[in-house]
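Interim report, section 4.2 (structural modelling).
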Amino acid sequence: MTGWNEKILDIDLTTGSIKTYPLDMTMARLFVGGRGLGVRLLWDLVGPGVDPLSPENVLIFTNGPLTGTAYQTSNRFSVSTKSPLTGTILDANSGGFWGMQFKRTGYAVLIVRGKAEKPVYIEIKDEKAEIHDASHLWGLHVSETTSRLGQDRNRRNVLCVGPAGENLSRIAAIMNDGQRALARGGPGAVMGSKNLKAIVVEGSGKTEVADPEQYKFMTYETKKLLAASPLTSQALPEFGTVVMMNLVNNVGALATRNHQHNMFEGAEAISGETLSETYLVKSDACWACPIHCTRISKTEKTGEVEGPEFQTTWAFGAQCGIADLEAIIEANFLCNDLGFDTISAGSTIGCAMELSERGYVDSDLRFGRADLLAPTLEDMAYRRGLGADMAEGSWRLATTYGAPELSMSVKGLEMPAYDPRGMQGQGLLLATSNRGACHMRGNMLGLEVLGLPKLIDRFQVQGKSSYVILNQNSSAAIDSLVLCKFASMGVADEYFARTLTAVTGIPYATGDMIRVGERVWNLERMYNLREGFTCKDDTLPTRLLHEPAPDGPTKGWVVQLEPMLKEYYRARGWDSNGVPTPKKLAELELQEL
Amino acid sequence: MIDERIYEMFREIGRDLYGQNMISSHGGNLSIRLGDKVIIKRRGAMLGALKPHDLIETRIDKNDSGVALASTELLVHRTVYQQTPALAICHCHPRTAIAFSLSRDVIVPIDNEASYLLKKIPVITEEFASGTPQMANKVAEALQNYKIIMLRGHGSFSTGQTLDEAFFWSSTLEEACQIMLSAKLINEPFIEYRKMSESYSKF
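Predicted structure of the assembly:
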């Protein structure tokens, strides 16, 4: 069969055993790859009650049938595990080069189990895998580790953890290609708990395509559409994702000072436009991506570094009341080098600032204190002082100091930049997201702000569940292919389905692909239910449900979650407690659960 | 109670369909998926002059009293919602496209916009071309692979996430057919300007 690598590499760090075996192709057809394949494998491998930081948890790295084909944005890969931050199912995906290189090795999946006695790294050269001593690398920052292991743009690629992961911070990321991140939910802590410092890949394989003529046509048409969209051909290349800063602020949906406000007076100073005029050196791109949204910025302290992205700029900016772009770029670089999720790190600092201002915590942290970003991140990575509590994420931090309501999180995962009081559908999306508050689980920004594919009323409540569900399913499908969400800002799902058909030779209608996403979503839901989560966890911070937004065009609004949630459960085919019905599971070929 | 915002969407697009000669006075219908329900035009209502009471809410998966008031094409809309990810459906009678559907099994636009957006529009035939299960299944099956299809001699069905997206495809199809008709009338050799255009008919 074309498209998929049909082999799994399974490494047990406790015993040192390295096995390979065939990928179940029925499973591959149903779950495709990436996030989908990851959750299906995790369902069997990590049962209920497993401590995410114990040797019983696993890391499952996956690519997809499109990965490495050179179809636009086909560079991504995914990791699945049980989250140490939330206790939920977790997947995170990342761009750059590592995913494409991993596909070249000939494997579809890498499973890492157990715990090594001492620090190790894994090296995979085509199909040969070895475990090496990494004592000399332990303690090093990400950039140094990546460099020492021989990162070579598209020939040899390094994935690793930094000090944050080694020290088991629950908001630690896994970093690839130096400054790319599998960020959310703390996968870096899982890797650190296994004494696994890095995974290096080097491959020479090629992904075969079933229908080269149709594949070529789809690639050509996708190129045309990405070039035709001002978002993917002008806004993202010129300003990066930070182009969203002014757009979101202008509609009154930019969370500010730990969500106390919904507009930031310093938005312009940290916008994509300002970045382009000041610290931006050039744009860059992941492998096989024409969009070029990556920023290369430069400050005196950092030199030329990647970033910052929009969510990062928001997290260290508006969320912390900081309008100092230079400090944000430096915090972003430090986060990458220490190996943190920038959203969770920034938002946890914002939470600590409010805790301090309200007297729950005795510290100098205050909104606007740009000078404290870097030392606080260092304290978090090395678990010094208050940093030790902050390394646990905002929910544990706020709970420890007696004010859990000040953590702007869902299921323990810190929220992104969007204040859902100004985007009702975004509120439902965040409340129901399986890995906690994540904006990448469905593009409600597109529908409610950007007009992709068409603008809908962002305050409308009735009927919002339909949009949220379709976009959650679509998002899960794209994460299973594995492609970049920005491609979907210029190209409709039907293109992805037709390309998947051309690559694999298996007919996937658009609806079939969305059905894959629905299957993935329901399985993730079942995983969380098995872990003890209930409908009570499908909620938002009290502030967003009960404190009316104070600013601008969103003034007076709270998230009207309850009616949307009721409609959502019904429309999902779940019972009133948010449990998928046997009928729905059978319809999705998940009846064995 | 149907949200006023939803009524406004129906009213505006119904008005434009009529204003653009895409329907007769009482022809065509629109619907949206609302969770596990569908909101659809009332049977016999004029799309060009919809009132709030002209919108009927009923279940997608089974009948309730709303079915007594809904459009005759309710079955097609329900079947499409059950078999595709559509959140909105626009059914209209674009005249030039209907004329082309009488002689072709596919309509392949020659203008730039429709080539970008639609590539190709399949034409399907159904003897009982209104409100039957056979027609509903054929339309839904075709809409699994295409966002707009033609029912020969009857009209178009298009889908989208929103009503205006579905309307967009209908409007684009009719415009493309008018251009094709004009090109035929001019009757001069066609100069191909699109790379890989031979692949459109295989889309």
